[in-house]
Amino acid sequence: MALWDELVDTVLTNLAAKRHLFNTRLITLAPQPALPQTFAGPGPWDRATIEIYTDRASVQQWLTINGEACIQDDEADQKLILFSGNDYMCLSSHPAIRDAAVKAAQEHGMGPRGSPLACGYTTYHKLVEESLAQLMKKQDCILCSSGYSANTAVMSAVGSVSSLLAVGRKPTEDERIAIFSDASNHASIIDGIRHMERMQEGVAFVYKHRDMSHLESLLIFSMGSNFAPLPELVELREKYGFLLVVDDAHGTFVYGENGGGAPELFGCQDDIDIVVSSLSKAAGCMGGFIACSTRWKRLILSRGRSLTFSTALPVPVVASVYAAIHVSKMERWRRSVLLENTQYFASLTELDIYNPVISVVVGSEDTVLKAHRFIFHPNFLLPYHIDSFIFSSFIFIFKCSHLLRSGFLVEPIRPPVVPPNTCRLRITLSTAHSSDDIKRLVDALKPWLPVKQAR
């Protein structure tokens, strides 16, 4: 990727000449966090991440339609099993993560509050960036307030290359940066590309989801549940010399021997130029990051508007992220348990799934609402015209004669989040789910699962 390195170096020189080359300002906070305690197996704190207790008033508020309660008062108190969270590794309640946040808060409060380019960047932030860069096998890393801001910052920086090279003039059509984006990419990537296009810094081409032939023809996933074809993308990168940026928000800490995500799983970490990921999912904390080369870090810090104009993550959050990185690396059994749960769900449903994010596509909006109504308790009467905001979370209850009544919180996905007639039930598994939890959920979902073929 020598060509891209030369382009970015030229851009950095031009920015430096204008005194527009920014960098973080390091604030020293001591002492540095110690390595946290880890465990050889699950503890009670793991189960706490998926057991959700609702009070009577909350349930009534969720399920009251047009001023009329849709649940009997004596059944309002409910313990739910969460199947919609992103805390796949159940680290959010881990004692080491809790202790790290508490200790940092006691010693430093929230820490200095400001942009990383002003006063919000501390030795804690630097330590986490170094740890993430090592995990992702990159020269450097940038901590971001969210995965959303990380993606928009990368798109802004990449798109700015053409205008920064065309000093004193508008870049021609042939000089503009072309970005090729999967049709199912996350909204943050799409929004970053749209901003780039509005600034007339680049042009975008959208290829069919996971369709490498379509991508290659253009060259001469978000609510889904499959991998990007990284080996094929790497081959195309070698052939055409494009910059390969991968969003691994749902893969970091989940896959790979050390938790390096999908790139580590497929053995192609060295062949990906920039990795964008989240700290709000499998890390159980908050924020996002960009793992990249040092030259790209300098450019993104200087041209990534979502970084320049955002306050840095609070120190207790950063301390908890540092603990999560270590716990994830040491407690490798968590990835094994998560894989076993995924395989068990697949065996019960015969769905072709390989990761803990599972989409059960049921079709139209009417169909997905019928699916909800069918597996609700009979006292739940939900009309089709219910406001979409109310459907952001649901109680799934299934009654079975040989089991105690159990409740499941499952996320329904409808337009505009997904295209029309592709409404789905989005299920996420974690290390804390038991085989019994999964079996009972599958029993409740049977009317909308593919019919098993006779063997």
From TrEMBL:
<dbReference type="GO" id="GO:0030170">
    <property type="term" value="F:pyridoxal phosphate binding"/>
</dbReference>
<dbReference type="GO" id="GO:0005789">
    <property type="term" value="C:endoplasmic reticulum membrane"/>
</dbReference>
<dbReference type="InterPro" id="IPR015424">
    <property type="entry name" value="PyrdxlP-dep_Trfase"/>
</dbReference>
<dbReference type="InterPro" id="IPR015421">
    <property type="entry name" value="PyrdxlP-dep_Trfase_major"/>
</dbReference>
<keyword id="KW-0808">Transferase</keyword>
<keyword id="KW-0256">Endoplasmic reticulum</keyword>
<protein>
    <recommendedName>
        <fullName>serine C-palmitoyltransferase</fullName>
        <ecNumber>2.3.1.50</ecNumber>
    </recommendedName>
</protein>
<dbReference type="InterPro" id="IPR050087">
    <property type="entry name" value="AON_synthase_class-II"/>
</dbReference>
<dbReference type="GO" id="GO:0006665">
    <property type="term" value="P:sphingolipid metabolic process"/>
</dbReference>
<dbReference type="GO" id="GO:0004758">
    <property type="term" value="F:serine C-palmitoyltransferase activity"/>
</dbReference>
<dbReference type="GO" id="GO:0009102">
    <property type="term" value="P:biotin biosynthetic process"/>
</dbReference>
<keyword id="KW-0746">Sphingolipid metabolism</keyword>
<keyword id="KW-0443">Lipid metabolism</keyword>
<dbReference type="InterPro" id="IPR004839">
    <property type="entry name" value="Aminotransferase_I/II_large"/>
</dbReference>
<dbReference type="InterPro" id="IPR015422">
    <property type="entry name" value="PyrdxlP-dep_Trfase_small"/>
</dbReference>
<feature type="domain" description="Aminotransferase class I/classII large">
    <location>
        <begin position="79"/>
        <end position="445"/>
    </location>
</feature>
<dbReference type="Pfam" id="PF00155">
    <property type="entry name" value="Aminotran_1_2"/>
</dbReference>
<comment type="pathway">
    <text>Lipid metabolism; sphingolipid metabolism.</text>
</comment>
<comment type="pathway">
    <text>Sphingolipid metabolism.</text>
</comment>
